[in-house]
Write a structure and sequence with these properties.
Structural class: alpha/beta
Length: 489
């Protein structure tokens, strides 16, 4: 019996589409096709760049349709959905512009006549991606990976399967060779099949810590490289000299981006005691101006969370924290009887043992923790199993630099919120994962860093003979030392 799953509109709770889950044989056909496409795709970097430029243009051309598909499937406000598509086009252009430079051979000075380090693609990459940024998550990895010469088989989240299928269609429309980028259809049950495929050479995963651990274990047990981009509970530190107007505006942007469903959203607002009252007042005022509603409406700021399970989780995190002493300043409840809408929520009197401080809160809920001073703020920021991003708000940039070096995370932003940017590496430490995406560092995650050394044959023979002679001399000297030691004894 064929298994099925459905995508559901989180605004109306209506079924959008129903899909049949691909069989193991169908998935392996896809990976085999990707391996066959790889043999040609890897050969010409200029052709790859041309194809990627064309794909970026196709994204811009199809922006409205792509944005609507995303909004219907996961509830992102339509204006933000358009911005995501635009950002995807940018990342494709960036790596088409810079890929050749990033992959240029490096010359190394050694005893050889010539020594170089080359960067070669490793093959087919299995990509397992989440629903919260269904285009961006897939393409921020795909852009450098494809430009390096690899091919990709994507398993999108089942909640945004339509988005994953639209990415493959856009690649085909733009003229990218068949098999270079493919999407497999299924729920979480097919991830293992993709990882296990003998034609998959490496794996990249973005998602939860629990699922990431399983992916890493399965991939590495088969000696397959993997990169993990997992959860986050990013601290937002307000120093004693912060500009409160700018910091409070940044707090709204940082916490409620994508309705709070972002791994790099600001989640723990650690405010020095001196600034706490003023910051909290402005943060609440600005939060209450946000409009929650139909995500297809142009004036909506926040849509619904992705599903009923997500809504239930954030509601329980808030209620459990209130039971332990947290105070709701605004929000704290579901909106309406249809759809998965939740009011933008701010909690104060939060302690570090509460769920909203310990867990990743994937929804529009901000937890405020008051610190005695800036050093305690840093200590509290590091008191987390996560280490993805952090932001620091201060007018003293020297202080900011010193504090940034004390924060245990992969990204620190001063006087702005954390965002992913093609020009700088993206990734975390601790349970936020390992490896990097974006920039040259992200591109080099999925290449074979190969050392090649050239020796002139005659020169090499002379050098080899010298080594043999030195070995004999060392052997004789060692023997003489042993004889002397024995006589002394």
């Amino acid at each position: 019996m064929t298994k099925e799953f459905s995508t559901i509109n989180p605004s109306s709770e209506e079924i959008i589409n129903t899909y049949q889950i691909m069989s193991k044989e169908q998935i392996n056909e896809k990976t085999k096709k990707a391996q066959q496409a790889f043999s040609e795709w890897k050969k010409d970097i200029k052709k790859r760049a041309d194809h990627i430029y064309n794909f970026a243009q196709e994204l811009r051309k199809s922006k409205e349709d792509l944005a609507k598909t995303m909004t219907k499937e996961m509830g992102k406000a339509i204006k933000d959905a358009r911005a995501e598509v635009e950002k995807c086009a940018w990342v494709m252009d960036y790596f088409a512009d810079n890929g050749k430079v990033f992959l240029t051979d490096e010359v190394v000075n050694t005893d050889a006549r010539k020594s170089v380090v080359t960067f070669e693609p490793i093959g087919v990459i299995g990509s397992i991606m989440p629903w919260n940024f269904p285009y961006w998550q897939a393409l921020r990895f795909a852009a450098p990976c494809l430009m390096a010469g690899n091919t990709i088989v994507l398993k999108p989240a089942s909640a945004t399967m339509g988005c994953g299928i639209e990415i493959e269609k856009a690649f085909k429309r733009s003229g990218v060779p068949d098999g270079v980028f493919q999407t497999v259809v299924g729920d979480s049950s097919i991830a293992d099949i993709l990882i296990d495929s003998e034609d998959v050479n490496a794996v990249t995963f973005t998602g939860s810590v629990t699922a990431g651990g399983k992916v890493a274990q399965r991939a590495t047990s088969q000696i397959k490289k993997c990169v993990l981009e997992l959860g986050g509970s990013d601290p937002f530190i307000v120093c004693e000299d912060a500009d409160i107007e700018k910091a409070s505006t940044g707090a709204v942007k940082g916490r409620f981006v994508n309705n709070g469903q972002s791994c790099i959203a600001s989640k723990r607002f650690i405010v020095t005691k001196k600034m706490a009252n003023d910051f909290i007042e402005k943060f609440v005022q600005k939060t209450e101006k946000l409009k929650v509603g139909d995500p297809l409406s142009e004036d909506t700021d926040l849509g619904p969370v992705v599903n009923a399970s997500g809504l239930k989780t954030i509601d329980s995190q808030v209620k459990d924290s209130v039971k332990e002493g947290a105070e709701i300043l605004t929000g704290g409840e579901q909106i309406g009887s249809k759809g998965y809408f939740y009011k933008p929520t701010i909690l104060k009197n939060v302690s570090t043992n509460m769920r909203v401080a310990q867990e990743e809160v994937f929804g529009p809920v901000a937890a405020i923790i008051v610190a005695e001073d800036e050093m305690e703020a840093v200590r509290l920021a590091n008191d987390s199993q996560y280490g993805l991003g952090a932001s620091i708000w201060t007018q003293d940039l020297d202080k900011a630099e010193n504090l940034s070096r004390e924060i245990r995370s992969g990204i620190v932003t001063v006087n702005n919120v954390v965002i992913s940017d093609p020009r700088v590496p993206f990734g975390g430490v601790k349970k936020s994962g390992f490896g990097r995406e974006l920039s040259r560092y992200g591109m080099l995650e999925f290449v074979n860093v190969k050392s090649v050394r050239f020796y002139d044959q005659l020169v090499h023979q002379i050098a080899f003979n010298k080594l043999i002679k030195l070995d004999k001399q060392n052997e004789q000297a060692c023997s003489e030392r042993v004889d002397k030691r024995d006589k002394h004894t």
